[in-house]
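Fig. S4 source data, part A: sequence.
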Amino acid sequence: MQYLMWDEEQESQERVVKLFRETLGYNYLGNRINRVGSHNIDVALSHSFLNFDVS
């Protein structure tokens, strides 16, 4: 079995996810790359965490 560069990248990403989940207490939403309308920022989700003052 050939070891690909992607394998190293995947391992790095998994370590980062583990850091954010276990050490920093973040919720992981999963890999959203195949989600229809996938963007870097989920605006609807982010609004629930932001406080807007539009006065």
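Fig. S4 source data, part B ends here. The longest helix spans residues 5-23.
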